[in-house]
Design a protein that fits this description.
The complex is a heterodimer of chains A (229) and B (292). By secondary structure, chain A is an alpha/beta fold. Helix content of chain A is 31%, strand content 28%. The longest helix of chain A is centred in the last third of the chain and has 16 residues, at 171-186. Chain B has a 4-stranded antiparallel beta sheet. Chain B is 70% helix and 8% strand. The longest helix of chain B is centred in the middle third of the chain and has 42 residues, at 154-195. The chains are: A alpha/beta (229), B alpha+beta (292).
Chain lengths: 229, 292
Amino acid sequence: MSEIRVERLRKEFGSVVALDDVDFAFPEGMVTCLLGPSGCGKTTLMRIVAGLERPTRGEVRVAGFAVNDLRNRDVPRLRRRIGIVFQDFRLLEDRTAEENVALALEATGMRADQIPARVLKVLSQVGLSTKSRSYPRELSGGEQQRVAIARALANDPPLLLADEPTGNLDEKATRAVVQLLRDINASGTSVVMATHDAALVRESSFRTLEMKQGRLVSDSARGAGEDLA
Amino acid sequence: MRPVIRECMLGFTRAPLLSTLSISTIAFSLFTLGLFGLVAVNLRHALTALENRVEIVAYLLRGTPIEAAMIAAEDVTAFPEVARVTYVPADSALARAQAEMSEFREAFRDLQVNPLPASLEVALHPGQRDPETVAAVAERLRGIGVVEDVRFGEEWVAGLARLRRIAGLVGGVIGLAFAGVALVIIATTIRMALLQRSREIAILRLVGATDGFIRAPYLLEGALKGLLGGVLALLLTWAAFALVRGGAPEVVVAPIFLPPVIIAAGIAAGTLLGFLASLVSVGRHLRPMGVR
């Protein structure tokens, strides 16, 4: 069964075509990379999958939801099934690491007495249990990204979307984050990572979909560099 | 503490300067409205006091027996517009004239005959003192057999009615303008405070918070700011009133403060404006798809 299925997806911003006839399926339980240069449509695709943007045409099914036909009241339900991580971390600067993670749990209605244990568990999972009381400004870029990942995992989503999660990190922090995504996947969460870093993708051996100018051009699962265009 | 209340309080503690500025701006907007209200209420109070002095005097024929005068007084009291009828005998009229017109005291003392007639002083109910009603009652008084003449200061009554109409119209227009300006300022203030927290709202949406969960603390915060601004405006208005009352001469009547119902309405309006401004501002951040 596929966690994400996209059929004949098209997205236009005015006269600009960001995605054109994109067709693919991400199976459950895998790490999949979306590879391509800036402006090729990776982020737009991730935003549509996350329910942050409506497609112009086509069908998108994510975790059992038809995103192209999503009712407003179902948007929060979809987002609870997806963890989302961005290049710029998107942490609240005036809250500690544990408060940032706890916010995701409060937002989804977890009982107050259950929140501290869950926060500690996910911060331990990303290796930050000793820095739970630190504010983002007191953490390195890699650590901030791990807090963002912990927040994305807080509600135990079956799918994690990471849009250029290593874009702001040095090489060492990049390797740590990629290893963390690999560990998260090993514990049962499907992961989709968008990146422009071809070397990172080559090293990782993840399934890779390559995009150019709004179209999918190759899928490593179909054989190295097989042309889909 | 429930997340809604805690997040609302955090809004104050994490941005104390912005919160103070918001409350002060709301307070000064409502204070301006309060000052206008104070002027309008006192103008109305003064006009009402002047209206209370509207009286019709029916002068009786000389030699009218007191029994006939009393019967006429009873008849007039039965008019629906009439609140009170006072019979003033000729002797009392002369004594009053002597007391009130001291410059003619000598002339009054030398009189062999009392020139003043007995009269009926007719006071009307509130709401029945407009020129048309007063003239109609005067006309009916003229029809009573023992009445020789009727006076009620036609020009003065008409002038007072005109003044009340102008005051009502100008007050309404200016009041609406003040209220509109206050509304815009309060809405802008709350919106600016919320803009600062648009990132927080976007993150809450990303993690799957419902619109209700996101809205609640901001609505509470907006209402609380409106309430505090309203209370502060009330204190400022009271201080201004106390200052003016201490220094200004009494015109017609002693100045009065805003009545409790207007105070309650003002504070409730501040709270409601804060709530509504937050509702509109948060709504702009809650489009289902479009998180940046």
